[in-house]
Design goal:
280 residues, 11 helices, globular
């Protein structure tokens, strides 16, 4: 369990720093339709690429954590990455935290401690083939909605934020429930593998587009809420995720404290002033 908690916190740090770098890269581009040219321009942005590299490291750490910890613990820890983003913004981008935001950081830490205390290390219950296919279908539907939304030159930030949250949720559920078969070639026939791939792609594209089009507080709040609450419900209902005996109230309190503090700090998902930063 200790390894899982360390991995979850490492993922939060990686994602938190990546958010700053990706915000710098995305805001350097002119707002418009998210097409192949837009994605190509993003790949030429050093801050954005560095952010993606940290996202990849965070994803690996997330998978390690999900193999042993319930979804509600790991997803809440990931949502806390906004606290890391806020601290990075203060240190390197000259951002300032209000008294309420400093209090939110304290609440965030308390929530994480409550989650760590209540966590129970165990593997996930296996999902039936029908449920696995359902997860993939949901990921594909969200991908279709995202494809339509990003073709519109402006607007739709809340919808894109919700799509990003569902994409992250699909990644979490798939990574938690995936049972690798013997023989790597058989893995290609696993619906959860493709749900993970599709969900990850949707999350990255939708979140980048939402950040570019909408108020960061709205985008981050919607994304955090969806990517934290949906996997927690799915994990409890289908994957056998449970808190330690007698610690369910502590776990619920930790989840709510962490999510509430993350939303309170959500403007730091894209710190003010990032367009003026010259990196790369």
């Amino acid at each position: 369990m200790v390894l899982g908690l360390i991995a979850a916190l490492a993922a939060a740090v990686a994602y938190g720093v990546a958010s700053v770098l990706q915000a710098v890269g995305a805001r350097r581009l002119e707002s418009g339709a998210v097409d192949a040219a837009f994605l190509l321009r993003l790949t030429r942005s050093l801050p954005y690429v560095a952010g993606l590299a940290l996202d990849a490291a965070g994803f690996v750490a997330t998978v390690v954590a999900l193999r042993v910890l319930p979804l509600f613990v790991v997803e809440s820890a990931i949502a806390s990455s906004v606290g890391v983003t806020a601290l990075v913004a203060v240190r390197f981008l000259g951002a300032r935290l209000s008294a309420s935001e400093r209090a939110a950081l304290v609440v965030l830490a308390i929530g994480l401690v409550a989650l760590a205390v209540s966590a129970q290390a165990e593997g996930a219950s296996p999902l039936g083939r029908g449920v696995q296919l359902a997860v993939l279908v949901v990921a594909l539907l969200v991908a279709g909605i995202t494809a339509v939304a990003v073709r519109r030159p402006r607007g739709g930030a809340p919808l894109l934020a919700a799509a990003a949250g569902l994409g992250f949720a699909a990644v979490g559920v798939a990574a938690r429930a995936l049972q690798p078969p013997s023989g790597w070639w058989k893995l290609l026939a696993e619906p959860l593998l493709w749900a993970l791939v599709v969900g990850g792609a949707v999350a990255l594209i939708a979140y980048a587009a939402a950040l570019q089009r909408g108020a960061v507080t709205v985008v981050a709040a919607v994304t955090f809420a969806v990517e934290t609450v949906v996997p927690a419900v799915v994990g409890y209902a289908l994957l056998g995720d449970r808190a330690r005996p007698g610690f369910l109230p502590v776990a619920v309190a930790g989840l709510l404290l962490t999510l509430g503090a993350a939303i309170a700090l959500s403007r730091h998902s894209e710190p003010e002033g990032t367009p003026a930063v010259t990196v790369g």
